[in-house]
Amino acid sequence: MKFFNSYFFLILAIFSFLxxxxxxxxxxxxxxxxxxxxxxxxxxxxxxxxLGTFHKLSVFLSLQLFFFFLLLISTLINNSKIENxxxxxxxxxxxxxxxxxxxxxxxxxxxxxxxxxxFVILSVNLLLMYYLHGFxxxxxxxxxxxxxxxxxxxxxxSYLFPALCVxxxxxxxxxxxxxxxxxxxxxxxxxxxxxxxxxTSLVGIVLILAYIxxxxxTPIEKTIKYxxxxxxxxxxxxxxxxxxxxxYFYFLIVDILEKDITMTGRTNIWQIxxxxxxxxxxxxxxxxxxxxxxxxxxxxxxxxxxxxxxYVMMFLTGTKKIFSPEHNHNSLNRFFSFVLFTTLxxxxxxxxxxxxxxxxxxxxxxNLDKLSHYLLWLQRRKNEKKIRLY
Length: 390
Known about the structure:
This protein has helices at 7-17, 22-25, 29-53, 59-77, 82-105, 107-133, 157-173, 180-196, 199-215, 219-223, 226-242, 250-256, 266-279, 295-323, 331-346, 356-366, 368-389. By secondary structure, the protein is mostly helical. It has one domain. Helix 6 crosses helix 7 (157-173). The longest helix is centred in the C-terminal third of the chain and has 29 residues, at 295-323. It is globular and about 60 Å long. The two termini are 41 Å apart. This is O-antigen ligase. The chain crosses the membrane at residues 33-52, 59-79, 85-103, 115-135, 155-173, 185-214, 226-245, 295-316, 336-362. InterPro entries: O-antigen_ligase-rel_domated. Its main location: membrane.
């Protein structure tokens, strides 16, 4: 399949997986159906190519299949949204295959195609938001439609955070931290977050941008204990979710910051999710039964204890390379460690573990070692050319 080496093929394939929800929200049925058909067509081609490239499934992909198989059983038993589940699960699995195919030999092509898609989608989306709504906030809109063309305000983060990661990798490939096109995409991501004004997303984006421009490539970066950050995030998630530790900071949250101690009513929704989990603690209530606005409870609610265990194994498999002692000196791994820390914190108030964008980040993290080898190869090749000149 020579067309797999085509830049156009890869751009179109990736776009079919990143299709903006606006085509559906604004009733563009013909375009929406066409892109869905293209996605199905590419899914078949990618599946065939994967089986022809690899003799066996990767551990990461195998755990994904186990997780979604369990979720399928739970969804069927509880009569949940099987159509939505099918679209989401197949998209994630096939996208993982796509990344592993190109990460094996064509990592640069993969990053450039991802960058092109995020650059175009988010830039067009930003222009549309300001063209249709001007400088109005979401609350001031008369029509109850998404201010963002690509998705709802919270789900737009599923595009913004992977875009930051891809933009960063794009600049690394071009050996320029301040790469012109990367800087533009950073600005588009930040302006989009400001426009939709999702506080959770905005804080996360500012933290990641601050890391890139202040800490990345500096001696301070090497002093940060990234594994400890992840452990802290996990304990914070558990503490806020099950032990309501935010009540100990009532004075700070309510009296000083003037925020709601229930996180805008989210803790009430969490309790509904916990009640649902209690009804089916082993395999959960299935995909799409309810949005809980908490990553941990969403996993328990949808997939039960079994689903949570398999998902944790999948997460650890996808990230073990960036946390292993032999790779913790790598700046790429440190950056992705910080991104994962940020998204874990965000999962306290959003169902981040079911965002397609989170799987994009996990796939990139799982294959960072291949990018590192590619960069080392480029450096050796450059040094060899210098030697020949002398």
